[in-house]
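Support request from a user on the community tier.

User writes: "When I paste my structure tokens into the form, the page sometimes reloads and wipes my input. The last time it worked, I copied everything first. Here is what I submitted, just in case something in the input itself triggers the reload:"
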């Protein structure tokens, strides 16, 4: 078996898990949804195996290219879904989470998969911390969006906003955003230290830096208004959903439309 084959096996298993999950939701069969979950776990294990294999071949953390980062992003979302399901009993997040992971893997499959040497600017002690934090920051924001979507759907079904179920949904979304924000802060700070060492400037107004800052501000505003409790939980949930394009553009759009010092990532 080749490394590329293992990647496509992972992608196929993720897609199969999503289809079985959606079928289980449609016909209201818990057995189908349980089957979908175990297929998803198998996909996660093969995905993790691929990630480790690629890292051993590359002799570095495999997150330097758009393909590698996309693959790592999907793995981060999968791991958070695993935690949500096993530790928080949040089985309802499966459909949206599986869809997100599958789409990320499909996107990754459209990128160049070749393993390349790190550019000189990337050969740094800070590489693993900067890129690794970015992966889990984006993953936390995306899963928070899935949780918030669940809140909105439950609200439309007539669930009372002050019910324990709805309060737990909103609080889980808040905790995920807080985690993502903390990690994004680390990304920006570490990036500034790294930039000074690599380019003799803490901040260069590179498009990636600018959009990372924009994303940071968007989520900082969310945390501010959430802590002040000036708006309803429904408003906050919509805010988290509508914030998704910001970090997705930082993740992929900047590289495609606004080339700069981070174009290799």
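"...and here is what came back when it finally went through:"
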């Amino acid at each position: 078996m080749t490394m590329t084959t293992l990647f496509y096996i992972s992608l196929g298993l993720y897609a199969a898990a999503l289809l079985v999950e959606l079928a289980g939701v449609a016909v209201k069969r818990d057995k189908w949804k349980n089957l979908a979950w175990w297929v998803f776990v198998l996909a996660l294990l093969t995905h993790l195996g691929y990630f480790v294999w690629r890292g051993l071949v590359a002799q570095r953390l495999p997150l330097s290219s758009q393909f590698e980062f996309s693959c790592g992003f999907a793995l981060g979302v999968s791991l958070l879904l695993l935690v949500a399901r096993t530790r928080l009993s949040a089985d309802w997040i499966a459909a949206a989470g599986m869809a997100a992971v599958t789409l990320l893997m499909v996107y990754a499959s459209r990128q160049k998969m070749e393993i390349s040497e790190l550019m000189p600017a990337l050969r740094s002690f800070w590489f693993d911390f900067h890129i690794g934090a970015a992966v889990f920051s984006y993953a936390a924001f995306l899963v928070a969006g899935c949780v918030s979507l669940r809140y909105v759907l439950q609200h439309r079904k007539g669930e009372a906003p002050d019910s324990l179920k709805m309060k737990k949904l909103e609080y889980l979304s808040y905790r995920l955003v807080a985690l993502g924000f903390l990690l994004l802060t680390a990304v920006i700070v570490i990036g500034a230290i790294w930039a000074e060492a690599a380019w003799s400037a803490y901040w260069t107004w590179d498009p990636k830096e600018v959009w990372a800052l924009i994303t940071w501000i968007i989520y900082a505003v969310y945390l501010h208004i959430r802590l002040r409790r000036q708006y309803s939980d429904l408003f906050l949930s919509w805010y988290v959903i509508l914030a998704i394009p910001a970090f997705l553009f930082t993740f992929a759009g900047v590289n495609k439309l606004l080339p700069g010092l981070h174009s290799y990532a």
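Agent notes: The reload is a front-end session timeout and is unrelated to the input. Residues 164-199 form the longest helix (36 residues). The mean pLDDT is 89. Escalated to web team.
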